[in-house]
Specification:
25% helix, nine-stranded mixed sheet, alpha/beta, 562 residues
Length: 562
């Protein structure tokens, strides 16, 4: 399910954020184990009262903040970007959508003087909304690549979820929150699902309990939002939480707005299973970008002109899937899609036509800044895993390792494209085998799953089980598990494969390839540990509406976002 490589035209626009420091590795200009500077003699808070429709955005240069920009503009507000510390101090409303790794974010904030200004702004009780890492940075310290000192405004330590008992980390998906005190911006969201994607969390304590406005349960109860006066911060992503999230942003940006409608009472109680719409986008023979769908990875019609199968325009389909209730959309961005977007294809080192070299990290950075929430790596991850298995050494140079180190493993999906290889006995294969439900063409009772690269065209000497284990070690936060044999067949997911992989790793697994009916979704969730299920053609052709899938899952007792 790999998309075509990123074109040089896109890559030529790669550029760093104006806030990103051009400096040596972390620690040279800032010691991450030292607390935030408390010297504020040269700064003062002076908010302007003439820009009620303007929201100040603190974008420190990492991750997808375009989603937040789109949501703010959708709600009718203008955006002013922070360029220097005084922009923070003069803000009427400040939104801080933190994305990426804790230490890297603190480095940028301290190096540019933003940490000091941010502390002053918040201590003056100016309207503030922190999102995800924007919540975590308010606390005293983090264990992520640390200990690393935070802003120290709220008591508590950011720690990693404990996966030792089988909990899947990162925590990815739509979960319910429990309101613990009135916060204004969270009105009406209890019983609703909001979108989380993180590996680290903060626990409630006697020291911070007065700040906590809601909690969420994922293996344990953790802080999902804090509130004090005009200061708000949330661990989840309101800009990716559909209408629920937009209502939260609207309440923060304009508390007196008459447009803030009361939401219907929800029944959310736990992490929901996700239903994902996949858009396989590529250029057809006329040079137009179209959504296509393969039949065992073959996207051509094989009739008349042998053209690439055209199922519609990417942005229009993505927008329709958002309206239809898809929990995520792969491979397309849109200014009117407020659910997570994952982009795959071309995430690798390359040199453009002008001889300019781009690292995979630079390519991923541009994807993130263009609106992607997660990126999907295919062939490059296979080669990295093969090398890791061969040497036992993590070099830190692979695209998988580099991107997960900077943006966090929750931002990295590895797409696995295997095909079934039947054998009579497990002894006939050097890779992990499984006893198959349906015997092979010669009555074989076992199979191993050979991984492929280059869109399924080239087989590699590594099994899906071995690849999954290796990429988890290298920093993958989620696995998109395809199956060439099932692709486009409409006979159901490969349950044997999905069960094998989802039980082998502690990161979430997305089941893909083969869905043809609503019953196939309930089957994969009941028989395997998959966290999500993906489909493409049946949604594009409207053979099975997303709403029908969700209604069926609810009838089967499987919690989904409605």
């Amino acid at each position: 399910m790999e998309a075509p490589p990123l074109s040089s035209g896109v890559a030529s626009n790669l550029r760093p954020s104006p806030l990103l420091p051009r400096l040596s590795p972390i620690g040279r200009l800032w010691n991450p184990r030292e607390p935030c500077s408390k010297s504020k003699k040269h700064l003062s808070v002076h908010a302007s009262l003439s820009q009620d429709s303007t929201v100040t955005l603190l974008d420190y240069g990492a991750g997808n903040v375009r989603s937040v920009r789109n949501a703010i503009r959708y709600l009718g507000f203008d955006i002013k970007d922070v360029q220097k510390p005084k922009d923070i101090l003069s803000a009427n409303r400040l939104v801080f959508p933190g994305v990426g790794a804790f230490a890297a974010a603190m480095e940028v904030l301290n190096h540019n003087g933003m940490a000091e200004a941010l502390c002053m702004y918040i201590e003056k009780d100016r309207p503030f909304l922190g999102i995800c890492l924007g919540l975590q940075l308010l606390f005293e310290s983090s264990e992520e690549n640390g200990p690393v000192k935070g802003l120290g405004l709220v008591p508590g330590v950011v720690g990693r979820f404990d996966s030792s008992s089988g909990l899947r980390v990162p925590h990815i998906g739509w979960n319910a929150v429990q309101i613990t005190k009135d916060s204004g911006i969270l009105d009406d969201i209890e019983g609703q699902h909001v979108y989380f994607v993180h590996s680290y969390r903060v626990l409630s304590s006697d020291a911070n309990k007065d700040w906590v406005s809601s909690t969420c349960n994922y293996g344990e109860s953790f802080i999902s939002s804090i509130t004090r006066g005009n200061i708000h911060a949330v661990q989840f992503h309101p800009e990716k939480s559909g209408d629920i999230g937009l209502s939260i942003l609207r309440r923060f940006l304009n508390t007196s707005s008459s447009k803030t409608k009361k939401l219907a009472c929800g029944k959310a109680s736990k992490l929901a299973k996700r239903v994902i719409a996949c858009l396989d986008v590529r250029t057809n023979d006329k040079g137009d970008l179209v959504v296509t769908k393969g039949d065992q990875y073959d996207v051509r019609e094989h009739r008349d002109r042998d053209e690439v199968r055209n199922l519609g325009k990417p942005v229009e389909l993505a927008g329709q899937y958002y309206k239809d209730g898809a929990d995520e959309v792969l491979r397309c961005t849109s200014e009117n899609v407020f659910v997570p977007l994952t982009v795959g294809g071309g995430i690798r080192d390359f040199t453009d036509g002008n001889g300019r070299h781009y690292s995979s990290l630079e390519v991923a950075s541009e994807y993130f800044r263009s609106g992607a929430d997660k990126i999907s790596i295919g062939s490059d991850a296979v080669f990295a895993a093969e090398e890791y298995i061969r040497t036992g050494v993590k070099t830190g140079k692979s695209s998988l390792e580099q991107i997960s180190r900077v943006y966090g493993n929750q931002a990295v999906v590895v797409s696995i494209d295997p095909r079934r290889m039947y054998v009579r006995s497990p002894d006939d294969a050097e890779f992990k085998t499984v006893k198959v439900t349906t015997p092979g063409p010669l009555g074989e009772e076992y199979a191993w799953y050979q991984c492929t690269v280059n869109g399924g065209r080239e087989g590699r000497p590594i099994g899906a089980y071995e690849l999954a284990k290796a990429v988890e070690e290298l920093g993958a936060g989620e696995i998109l598990l395809n199956c060439i044999d099932c692709d486009g067949q409409g006979q159901g997911f490969d349950i044997d494969l999905i069960k094998l992989i989802s039980e082998a790793v502690t990161i979430p697994v997305i089941a893909s390839s083969g869905a043809g009916a609503v019953e196939h979704f309930s089957e994969v969730f009941k028989k395997t540990s998959a966290s999500a299920a993906l489909a493409a053609g049946i949604f594009h052709r409207k053979e099975v509406p997303i709403l029908s899938v969700k209604e069926h899952l609810l009838r089967e007792g499987i919690e989904v976002r409605t």
